[in-house]
Write a structure and sequence with these properties.
- The protein has 89 residues and is mostly helical.
- 84% of the residues lie in helices and 0% in strands.
- It has helices at 8-39, 46-88.
- Helix 1 (8-39) runs antiparallel to helix 2 (46-88).
- It is rod-shaped, with a radius of gyration of 20 Å.
Length: 89
């Protein structure tokens, strides 16, 4: 049977990576949104309106990915607490 070794250092790295990835994702969403809106400012085309709907849907999904990255960081914090509690025994 294999063993899985948990470490606070690995959990802290996972927290750091997930927070960094979430921050970059949110930043890129904002940059993309601003660039597209700037390029098409004042355009009143039905296809552009459809693009905006799809873009909003995509941004919602990307934000859900960001939320899952937050969940990873939360789980890793719980692992660290568990490791600390286990080491106190």
């Amino acid at each position: 049977m294999s063993k899985t070794k948990l470490s606070k250092a690995a959990a802290n790295r996972a927290i750091l990576y997930s927070e960094e990835a979430r921050d970059r994702l949110m930043s890129n969403i904002n940059v993309m949104n601003n660039n597209v809106n700037y390029q098409f400012i004042g355009l009143k085309d039905p296809s552009y309106n459809r693009y905006l709907e799809l873009s909003e849907s995509m941004q919602t999904m990307l934000k859900q990915i960001g939320d899952r990255m937050d969940a990873v960081a939360t789980y890793c914090r719980q692992v660290i607490k568990w490791i600390d509690a286990y080491n106190e025994i």
